[in-house]
Amino acid sequence: MLRLTILYDNEACTGFTGSWGFSVLVETDRETILFDTGWDGTLLLKHMKKAGIDPSRISKLVLSHQHWDHIGGLPEILNANPGIAVYVPASFSENLKKEIKKRSTFIEVKEAIEISRDIWSTGELGDKIKEQSLVLITKNGSYVITGCAHPGIDEIINAASFHGKIKGILGGLHDSDVFEGFKEMNMIAAGHCTTHKEKIKGLFPSKFMEIRAGLRLELTEC
Ligand SMILES: [Zn+2]
Ligand SMILES: [Zn+2]
Description:
By secondary structure, the chain is of the alpha/beta class. It is 20% helix and 29% strand. The strands form 2 sheets. It has a 7-stranded mixed sheet with strand order 6-5-4-3-2-1-14. Residues 65, 67, 148, 150 line the site of one zinc ion.
């Protein structure tokens, strides 16, 4: 099983609330991993309840980058799940790292690292705003999950391609306007901070998908 549930986005399905930011839950047969937290932890927990997810089931939290719309729900996740493993980019402020360390199993990320079997971080990418993305490896290709994609889609796809062909991308795609890397993909799922949604949709109508809080996707492995 490889299942994704969007828990936070500025767009939302009926019964969920749109709010600026991003969070997605990744479930496999072995583990439940949360990627980012949106900005409002109360809303994040409300969405988890609505989606039937017990936060204490989450074993690992991966934070893409130190922007408010991705880490705001961190205290609520630490409260609900003391000692959880948190994968934090090394570029986070020292004071914030110190606080997270007090309440979690803290893992600092610089280089690419395996988070769970067949689930990797790209490691910190970019210069100005450093960010890590997730790579989910399946038998016939990988899926990339981005926070805001500040380092640029090209750099992210390039790093993620280390694990083989990329089948799809999901998350905030920011303002990248180089779409070459999307050509070979089957799924382009754009979220909260994607500037060129309409343009990408126009170029790849059959692959494009707008994500929203409450959306659940089963990724096939064959
Ligand atoms: Zn950002
Ligand atoms: Zn963002």
